[in-house]
Design a protein that fits this description.
This protein has 166 residues and is an alpha/beta fold. The protein is built from six helices and seven strands. The protein is globular, with a radius of gyration of 17 Å.
Length: 166
């Protein structure tokens, strides 16, 4: 998630679904299943503001969304250079950029992380999730990505059964 104040933006926010294998933004937002991301992969040199705008779907709320293709793509199908250029263009166009990342580390994960103002890691409060988060932090450290603005968000937390709760 990144916030930039570099002048007047055309749109307040966009969502870039970069989980190329299991991204579900289009399903969650009830957007058409078609995604023109393959155009970007077939002709990355054409990536500019006009191409990005043409690839994004418009949600009824006004949110612009870059959705993933229906068929899963290998994570190495996209280079760090393409992701960097995509983020640069989006930062010029939108005040807020939300990036939905895959759970796996990719060769361009650090590109997204280094450009982020805040990184939200969403997890459930259970032992397997805590272990996975601990391993994830170890990988972040091994990759030399210490000092990132990471915030952990607990999803599906239930206070049922705790003292004082009914």
């Amino acid at each position: 998630c990144a916030k930039r104040k570099l002048g007047k933006k055309d749109q307040a926010a966009c969502l870039l679904d970069l989980d190329l294998q299991y991204g579900g933004a289009s399903i969650h937002l009830d957007l058409p299943g078609y995604s023109p991301v393959m155009d970007l992969l077939n002709k990355p040199e054409r990536l500019d503001r006009e191409m990005l705008e043409g690839m994004m779907m418009r949600h009824s709320s006004g949110l612009r969304v870059l959705t993933t293709p229906e068929a899963p793509l290998p994570m190495e199908a996209v280079s760090s250079e393409i992701i960097d250029k995509l983020l640069q263009i989006a930062q010029k166009r939108f005040e807020y950029i939300v990036v939905d990342m895959p759970q796996t580390m990719t060769m361009w994960t650090d590109t997204v992380f280094r450009k982020s103002k805040v990184i939200y890691v969403v997890m459930q409060l259970n032992v397997p999730s805590i272990r996975q988060l601990r391993r994830w932090f170890s990988v972040i450290e091994q990759e030399g990505l210490q000092g990132l603005p990471i915030k952990v968000v607990v999803n599906r937390y239930s206070s049922f059964g705790h003292a004082g709760q009914s």
